[in-house]
Specification:
The complex is a heterodimer of chains A (282) and B (238).
Chain A lengths: L2 H4 L10 H42 L2 E2 L2 E2 H17 L36 E4 L8 E3 L1 H5 L4 E8 L5 E10 H7 L23 E5 L6 E5 H4 L5 E6 L2 E2 L9 E3 L14 E5 L19
Parallel strand pairs in A: 3-12
Antiparallel strand pairs in A: 1-2, 3-4, 5-6, 6-9, 7-8, 7-12, 9-10, 9-11
Chain B lengths: L1 E5 L3 H26 L5 E4 L2 E5 L3 H7 L5 H29 L2 H4 L5 H12 L14 H25 L5 H6 L3 H29 L1 H9 L1 E5 L22
Antiparallel strand pairs in B: 1-4, 2-3
Helix pairs in contact in B: 1-3, 3-6, 5-6, 6-8
The chains are: A alpha+beta (282), B mainly alpha (238).
């Protein structure tokens, strides 16, 4: 820095008013121009955003949800499944904290039903499979699992409830139903590569149906359940056998299971066909 | 004389204006979801001061029977909300903008002065800066709230796989209540924010669109005599 710049020099005096006015006029012109451009661009982007949103909202629906939204839900499900580990458990509570659970949803629970004649039908998987049937006594003969977990409804409410039943994984460890080779699934945390990818379940009248990924089906807290809060399941709550899993919302925890299907195609799902996420869980 | 002074970088303006419609739609779809189990209220025992939400509110906004749609929008837009918020935070860190935004040890005191001034109780104008103490607290808290919404949201979206998080937040039902409370927080933030933007006037609003403010300076020294200076908050002494 030299001396000249530090001292006021006669060659560069205080700008006269005219110069200041010109500079200000320049600034104002520049401001007006930038401002106009910025508002036009923002307005255009806003309009683009609005029409983008309209396009999304009005896109052809797949099962009650605009197709692009459905794609993102399925992407979320793939991400969720990639993160999933069946060693991560839902919290369990003291049995004393169990509450009465509300009755919510009667689809598939028609009056024409004889619990005594009931059998669990299992459709075969793989080339050599034959359809099989199981009585409630056969299921109760398998290892019994009790758990007190929080039941979560897709509506947003939740209730702590005690359940008892047989783990679906114990059922599949005992009976070779879900593998192509016809071997039982010995280690539920590492199902063999020839295991079915999905389990589908239907009520006896086929009015209600759900699908789960095999990983969720083999989770240690996924039960074929026959007891609720220390008593045999009531018909309302799904007697003689229902699905219970804290991994999924109640809409997936089908009551009165009539048929089990092991498949590699994603099974139909009652609420997923009516605008809900197919995965709905973890 | 007036000069043009840069205020908000383009990136910040983008993050701000992307967030506005996205958060609005998140709240909107959230209301569709909440309707299916609208249990929250202000009150005690059997006395209810305010039900969330009164039937008239639900009816006026047409919120009923849209749970499935609400969930699908919510679980799509959550990505935009999260990514936009994350980029904003990263940008403020790497650009140095955080210096204007993070509260300092003076911010609380200044926020009280600002509030008293805004309410007309205090006559003395608090120091004028890019963001005053009240703004620093508000804009930093709202980012914290955003993080809170993401975490409480994840805790109720995936309560088993993130059971540790759900537990940390007090369990599933508490996490849902916290998620709701944060939403009420955004609405309150929005109302104060709009009132302040209206008060602050056109020059300030235009800066969030076009990036600059027009400021009065002394022609000789170009020292700002009116309008915010660009001094980082941390450098300003009170």
């Amino acid at each position: 820095m030299n001396e000249e710049n530090q001292l006021p020099s006669p060659a560069s005096p205080v700008p006269p008013q005219a110069e200041a006015d010109a500079a200000q006029a320049d600034a104002l012109r520049g401001a007006a121009q930038r401002s106009r451009r910025a508002f036009l661009v923002t307005g255009a982007l806003g309009a683009a955003g609005f029409f983008g949103w309209r396009w999304l909202a009005n896109a052809p629906a797949v099962d009650g949800i605009a197709a692009p939204l459905r794609k993102v839900l399925d992407f979320n499900a793939r991400l969720t499944n990639a993160y999933y580990k069946n060693t991560r458990l839902a919290p369990e509570f003291a049995k004393s904290r169990a509450q009465k659970i509300r009755f919510n949803g009667a689809v598939g629970l028609g009056a024409e039903f004889d619990p005594l004649a009931w059998r669990l039908h299992v459709q075969g998987y793989g080339p050599a499979a034959v359809p099989q049937q199981f009585s409630i006594a056969q299921l109760k003969a398998l290892p019994r699992t009790e758990m007190t977990t929080e039941f979560k409804c897709v509506e947003g409410w939740s209730t702590i409830v005690s359940w008892a039943g047989v783990r679906l994984s114990d059922f599949l460890a005992r009976y070779p139903l879900a593998t192509r080779s016809g071997r039982p699934i010995a280690d539920p945390s590492q199902p063999p590569p020839d295991a079915a990818r999905y389990v589908g379940m239907q009520t006896p009248d086929r009015a209600y149906y759900v699908g789960l990924e095999m990983e969720s089906a083999l989770h240690p807290q996924t039960l074929l359940c026959y007891e609720l809060n220390g008593e045999p399941l009531s018909l309302q709550h799904g007697a003689p056998l229902r699905l219970v899993t804290p991994l999924k919302y109640g809409i997936k925890q089908i009551k009165r299971i009539g048929t089990l299907v092991f498949t590699d195609e994603r099974p139909a799902d009652f609420w997923a066909e009516r605008g809900y996420d197919w995965h709905a869980g973890h | 004389m007036k000069v043009l002074v840069e205020k908000h970088p383009l990136a910040i303006r983008w993050f701000h204006w992307v967030n506005f419609p996205v958060l609005s739609l998140m709240i909107w779809s959230g209301l569709w979801i909440y309707w299916a189990n609208d249990v929250y209220r202000l009150g005690w025992g059997s006395t209810t001061l305010l039900k969330f939400f009164p039937d008239s509110f639900n009816q006026a906004l047409g919120l009923s029977h849209k749970l499935g749609q609400g969930m699908s929008w919510h679980f799509v837009l959550m990505w935009v909300f999260f990514i936009n918020g994350l980029l904003y935070v990263l940008y403020t860190i790497f650009s140095g903008e955080w210096r204007y935004l993070l509260p300092t040890r003076h911010s609380f005191k200044e926020a009280i002065q600002v509030t008293l001034y805004d309410l007309g109780i205090r006559k003395e104008h608090p120091p004028v800066r890019k963001f005053n103490g009240a703004q620093q607290l508000a804009y930093t808290s709202v980012v914290g709230m955003g993080l809170g919404s993401v975490l409480t949201g994840l805790a109720i979206y995936k309560p088993t796989q993130f059971a540790w998080l759900t537990g940390l937040l007090g369990g599933y039902e508490w996490a849902r209540a916290e998620h709701f409370l944060l939403t009420i927080g955004y609405v309150l933030f929005f109302m104060v924010h709009i009132a302040q933007v209206v008060r602050a006037g056109w020059n300030n609003f235009r800066a969030m669109v076009a990036g600059f403010e027009l400021e009065e300076v002394t022609p000789t020294t170009h020292e700002v005599v009116a309008g915010p200076t660009s001094l980082p908050a941390a450098d300003a002494s009170l």
